[in-house]
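Bumping my old thread because nobody answered last time. Still need a sequence for this structure:
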């Protein structure tokens, strides 16, 4: 009897599953449940039907090629291989490809991208940029060899040869088409290579037009600062780029007609404008001619000296009035000056100055006398204060033979009750001190207090 470990049994099952060719390229049909997509980008879910359930793992490297977003309840067909996850002992399907069951993956991806961008507001009319009426440079982002580019160039040369046409050739179908179209839009916009750009191609199947339904192309159109016209397929074809672009044209040829004014209509418009301008100039010239003739017939132009003589007379009268006014003002000023001279003669400035000088001298003398009195009074008061302070000064008292006694706590002794025999004291004199010891303490009657 052979006894196996759990790991050995799991390894045998794993080897059996992986060695079976039939189990390494399975196509499994079922309904998605327990779908999850962590930050790693891997997909984890189960496929179920009414009888069984199978765990499925799709790693990020395979998941990034999906053209739709899986979700719970969606029926799909998955291609992959069976294997065992040793740690849990579960067998599961490792998916390589996945597509919707019963609906095309491309159409489902189209609907999902359309719904997501519509919720983001990319289809709103207020985000659309105006198409220039007279563009100087037009960029065509399309296939460089298709009929669409030839039709657009022919239409532009016929209708508006003044514009410069720049063709940016790209793949319009296949796996590389979305990246090339988005890069071309970014190139034209970043380097300002045109005033407007047409992005499109000729007709084709839904799959052939799908490059214009991808989110990378829609993002490039949305970010462009230059207006974009989408012209994909025929009038019945509708793509994501049609919704995001600033303007949708039913066909590439129609886009060329929209972006280019017809030179025949331009010439007719210019001719009509020139005729209107000529008519306006002629009317203005006629009006000015009539005005000039009317002025020539006026008295000023007929007899200009009469008008000048009238102004001469007016100036003469003004001159006489000005002279009279000046004489009157001069008379009033002379009279005022005479009155002022009379008042000054009555009031001699020199006498007033002498009087003021005498008053100032008198005030100076009185001020000096008052100052001396105040100083003497203050000096006398200061001497009195100094004498009073001298009486209170301990040094003055000590100069008469007195001393100050301090106990061991450095406090002045004023009574014999503060001391005890044998206690150290300090006697402060006027010019120094003495360290002493108390030999005895006595009352004033002369009897010893404490031995």
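Sorry it took so long. Here it is:
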């Amino acid at each position: 009897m052979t006894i196996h470990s759990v790991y050995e049994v799991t390894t045998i099952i794993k080897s059996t599953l992986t060695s079976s060719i039939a189990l390494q390229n399975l196509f499994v049909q079922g309904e998605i449940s327990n779908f999850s997509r962590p930050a790693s980008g891997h997909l984890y879910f189960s496929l179920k039907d009414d009888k069984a359930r199978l765990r499925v793992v799709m790693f990020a490297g395979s998941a990034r090629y999906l053209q739709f977003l899986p979700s719970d309840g969606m029926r799909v067909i998955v291609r992959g291989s069976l294997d065992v996850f040793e740690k849990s002992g579960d067998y599961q399907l490792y998916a390589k490809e996945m597509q919707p069951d019963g609906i095309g993956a491309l159409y489902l991806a189209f609907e999902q991208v359309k719904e997501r961008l519509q919720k983001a507001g990319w289809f709103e009319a207020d985000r659309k940029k105006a198409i220039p009426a007279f563009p100087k440079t037009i960029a065509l982002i399309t296939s460089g060899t298709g009929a669409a580019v030839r039709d657009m160039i022919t239409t532009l040369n016929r209708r508006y040869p003044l514009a410069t046409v720049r063709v940016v050739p790209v793949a319009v179908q296949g796996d590389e088409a979305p990246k090339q179209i988005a890069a071309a839009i970014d190139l034209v916009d970043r380097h300002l290579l045109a005033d407007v750009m047409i992005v499109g191609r000729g007709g084709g199947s839904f799959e052939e037009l799908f490059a214009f339904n991808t989110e990378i192309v829609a993002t490039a159109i949305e970010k462009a600062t230059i207006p974009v016209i989408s012209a994909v397929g025929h009038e019945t074809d509708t793509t994501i780029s049609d919704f995001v672009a600033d303007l949708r044209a039913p066909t590439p040829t129609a886009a060329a007609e929209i972006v280019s004014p017809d030179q025949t209509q331009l010439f007719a418009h210019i001719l009509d404008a020139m005729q209107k301008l000529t008519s306006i100039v002629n009317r203005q010239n006629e009006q000015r001619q009539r005005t000039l003739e009317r002025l020539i017939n006026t008295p000023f132009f007929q007899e200009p000296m009469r008008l000048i003589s009238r102004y001469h007379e007016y100036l003469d009268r003004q001159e006489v009035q000005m002279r009279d006014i000046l004489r009157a003002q001069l008379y009033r000023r002379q009279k005022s000056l005479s009155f002022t001279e009379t008042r000054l003669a009555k009031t001699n400035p020199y006498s007033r100055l002498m009087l003021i000088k005498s008053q100032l001298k008198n005030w100076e003398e009185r001020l000096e006398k008052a100052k001396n009195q105040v100083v003497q009074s203050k000096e006398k008061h200061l001497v009195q204060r100094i004498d009073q302070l001298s009486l209170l000064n301990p040094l003055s008292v000590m100069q008469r033979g007195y001393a100050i006694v301090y106990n061991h706590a450095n406090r002045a002794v004023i009574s014999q009750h503060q001391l005890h025999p044998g206690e150290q004291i300090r006697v402060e004199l006027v010019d120094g001190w003495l360290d002493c010891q108390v030999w005895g303490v006595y009352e004033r009657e002369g009897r010893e207090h404490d031995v």
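Confidence is low (pLDDT under 50) at residues 447-451. Let me know if any region looks off to you.
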